[in-house]
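Private note to self, pasted from the team thread so I don't lose it. Backbone tokens:
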């Protein structure tokens, strides 16, 4: 079996890690890939948005299954292009990927189908948004409508901060066209939990829970990032919470998308806030979360490729989804200065320390080859994942492993998973 993975980041490395466990997989390609993915797949110099070139490659190499990891190509319609050419592909079509591509769409969907979420308003011009803020309760949340690399959300504590945020998003176009429309929603308090779900257009099966750390600095301080680390499972995602979400959020979302003529097949990421009034949806994504994939996929007992195929073939209901009775923690190693200004091109040492060590993984985010060496090539550089019989052990293992590698400007948070001590 030949598999093509589309993407170049740590999420795609985690997917390749899971796919490689299937004994029927004889060859993995990744387009365009990165220096770490090259250890398990052949990297192909084709961009993730070059749909026709990717489809040509899939035809030429007789690819049995293409897995799309990134949000941009999904929202752009890569699945539609592949399906039109009779190619087998995993991911939602363009009209379903809008659930991530437009926050206004997803909020309106939840409102229409009574899926619990924060109260909100949407705006298409800055002046109207600024007028609304004058009577709004602080703190408040501003969300750029479109894709913004996971950074298009601003939590504003004062009116002045909120007004500055509106101007940044809508007038200054800090996030480009993603800020053409703006969602302003109430600030919810509680524990954040992420749940990734397999979907076949009709049925949905949630995976194990995870908890992300978005802020750049310890104590959830600093700017929003693409994610500085995560752990799984979340001790706050109890069986009672899971049952509520399955009844009032997960299946209703699938039913809503189907009712709208947008059946969703692929990975649905559901970001939850566990409020005093019960779980509510923070956001949807149309693919594996990052860094959630780095702790969820290593814990899968079931076969990842078989899960993809069950979704595509509409037989997810009969697929046995199981996870190991353990825990995993991921610590992100970033370049100093991320997510604003940082340098790259520094050699990474110590990567060989992960070879042959069960329960440890080093997933590459922003890396590249230079003069025969692996160097830093982004703000987030590596995701260090370790498992253990419980969360505290997994956390200790992950931080120990984070010390096995080094590069100039190496930065990490030191409190990933600290919340488990409060459980």
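Design output:
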């Amino acid at each position: 079996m030949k598999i093509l993975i589309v993407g170049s980041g740590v999420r795609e490395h985690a997917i390749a890690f899971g796919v490689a466990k299937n004994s029927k997989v004889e060859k993995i390609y990744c387009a365009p890939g990165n220096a770490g993915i090259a250890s398990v797949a052949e990297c192909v110099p084709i961009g993730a948005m070059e749909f026709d070139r990717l489809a040509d490659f899939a035809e030429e190499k007789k690819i049995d299954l293409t897995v799309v990891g990134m949000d941009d190509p999904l929202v752009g319609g890569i699945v539609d292009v592949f399906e039109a050419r009779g190619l087998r592909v995993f991911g939602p079509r363009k009209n379903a990927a809008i659930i991530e591509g437009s926050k206004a769409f997803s909020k309106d969907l939840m409102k229409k189908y009574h899926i619990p979420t924060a109260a909100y308003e949407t705006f298409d011009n800055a002046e109207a948004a600024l007028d609304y803020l004058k009577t709004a309760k602080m703190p408040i949340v501003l969300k750029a409508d479109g894709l913004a690399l996971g950074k298009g959300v601003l939590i504003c504590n004062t009116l002045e901060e909120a007004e500055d945020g509106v101007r940044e998003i809508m007038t200054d176009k800090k996030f480009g066209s993603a800020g053409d429309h703006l969602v302003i929603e109430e600030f919810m308090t509680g524990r954040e939990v992420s749940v990734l779900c397999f979907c076949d257009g009709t049925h949905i099966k949630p995976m194990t829970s995870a908890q992300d750390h978005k802020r750049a600095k310890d104590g959830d301080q600093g700017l929003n990032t693409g994610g500085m680390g995560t752990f799984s499972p979340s001790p706050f995602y109890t069986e009672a919470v899971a049952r509520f979400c399955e009844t009032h959020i997960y299946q209703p979302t699938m039913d809503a998308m189907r009712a709208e003529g947008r059946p969703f097949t692929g990975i649905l990421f559901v970001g939850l806030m566990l409020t005093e009034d019960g779980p509510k949806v923070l956001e949807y994504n149309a693919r594996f979360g990052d860094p959630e994939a780095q702790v969820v996929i290593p814990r899968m007992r079931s076969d990842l490729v078989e899960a993809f195929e069950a979704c595509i073939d509409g037989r997810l209901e009969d697929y046995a989804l199981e996870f190991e009775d353990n825990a995993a923690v991921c610590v992100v190693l970033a370049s100093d200065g991320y997510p604003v200004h940082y340098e790259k091109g520094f050699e990474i040492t110590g990567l060989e320390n992960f070879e042959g060590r069960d329960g440890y993984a080093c997933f590459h985010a922003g890396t590249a080859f230079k003069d025969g060496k692996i160097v830093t090539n982004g703000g987030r550089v590596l995701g260090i994942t370790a498992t253990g019989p419980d969360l505290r052990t997994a956390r200790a293992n992950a931080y120990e492993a984070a010390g096995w590698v080094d590069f100039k400007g190496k930065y990490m948070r030191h409190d990933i998973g600290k919340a488990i001590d409060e459980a």
